[in-house]
Design a protein that fits this description.
Elements (H helix, E strand, L loop, with lengths): L2 E3 L8 H8 L6 E3 L3 E2 L7 H7 L15 E6 L3 H13 L5 E5 L4 H5 L10 H14 L6 E6 L8 H10 L4 E5 L13 H4 L3 H7 L2 E5 L5 H11 L3 E4 L1 H5 L3 H9 L9 H18 L5 H12 L4 H10 L5 H16 L1
Length: about 325
């Protein structure tokens, strides 16, 4: 079985991919979406979203990173997929799942699920544009307003020759509200398996128990994790161990704190210092779902802005724990 890291817009950039993949258990990452309209984008755009292209398309821990494209026109999508492959992307992922209103309004993401034929045309164009050795994957939801076209969309992706299909088990209207309807994925399991396309379940997997229930209801071995990995950085390792019949000791908060300090330093080196605090606070927002001390640290840094102040607060928190 495999665990994939989800492409969370505005959250999982290359620095977060580096942090989470160093923990282990993650088999593949996907970039935040590259927005495609009518033009063939210059290489610098692809390098900005996927700096790992400078390193054979892999994170520092050696985990491959697929480059995700979002757009509604087969021609431009294919041209940009071809360029990404030329630059060394290990795989191309297509975003048919983003529920953001602005994205949908501009003919991208989950709005295209209302037109299975167009899903097919975009996927087929990309599959034809890149070498056979480069996998083409797609990420969808159960539908836009409802699940009525779910099976048609899945058939369209399969017929277009996609190597893999990730299904976020909610509609666009559902957004990110629990629950995720994993059992709906099982409806297409046999058809997808017969085609040779790999099916991956996604949505609302926060714990090992969630993974087990998702696997039981969706009949999928492979899963994609997003918020669950941000809240529990070693969740992928826990899942891998459980799938092999063993168990690992969950990562303690002290180790997560070391990662958080490393992340703050990395972010300061890569971004405008004004944004370091926002990114650290954002991650703490997820971590406090799993770690009590994350909430305490969040209260200490929530009004801080300067990188030095935030680093000092993280260090002071660690010293307090060690005392």
């Amino acid at each position: 079985m495999r665990v994939l890291l989800a492409p969370m817009e505005g959250v999982v950039d290359h620095s977060m991919r580096a942090m989470l993949t160093q923990v282990g258990g993650i088999d593949r990452c996907v970039t935040e979406f590259v927005r495609v309209t009518d033009q063939r984008l210059p290489p610098r755009v692809f390098y900005r979203y996927c700096p790992e292209l400078h390193c054979d398309g892999r994170t520092p821990s050696g985990v491959p990173v697929y480059l995700q494209l979002l757009g509604g026109k087969p021609g431009p999508m294919a041209e940009n997929a071809q360029r990404a492959a030329e630059l060394g992307a290990p795989g191309i992922d297509i975003n048919f799942g983003c529920p953001a209103k602005q994205v949908n309004k501009n003919d991208g993401g989950s709005v295209i699920l209302r037109e299975p034929q167009r899903v097919h045309e975009i996927t087929r164009a990309i599959r034809d544009a890149v070498p056979a050795r480069v996998p083409v994957t797609a990420k969808i939801r159960l539908g836009y307003e409802d699940c009525d076209l779910f099976e048609d969309v899945v058939a369209a992706v399969i017929a277009a020759g996609a190597n893999e299909l990730v299904v976020h088990a909610r509609t666009k209207v559902d957004g990110y509200k629990p629950p995720a309807f994993w059992s709906e994925i099982a409806r297409v399991r046999d058809a997808v398996a017969a085609s040779g396309t790999v099916l991956v379940a996604n949505g609302e997997i926060w714990s090992l128990d969630d993974y087990r229930l998702c696997r039981e209801q969706s009949d999928c071995k492979d899963v994609m994790l997003g918020r669950g990995l941000l809240a529990c950085p070693d969740l992928a390792r826990q899942i891998k161990a459980a799938s092999e019949g063993s168990r690992i000791t969950p990562m303690p908060w002290t180790q997560v704190l070391e990662m958080l300090a490393q992340f703050a330093q990395m972010t300061e080196e890569l971004y405008d210092p004004r944004y370091v605090g926002n990114r650290v606070k954002q991650w703490l927002g997820y971590l406090r779902r799993h770690y009590t001390f994350a909430g305490e640290l969040f209260e200490s840094v929530k009004r801080l802005r300067r990188p030095g102040e935030i680093a000092a607060a993280i260090e002071a928190h660690g010293e307090k724990l060690a005392a």
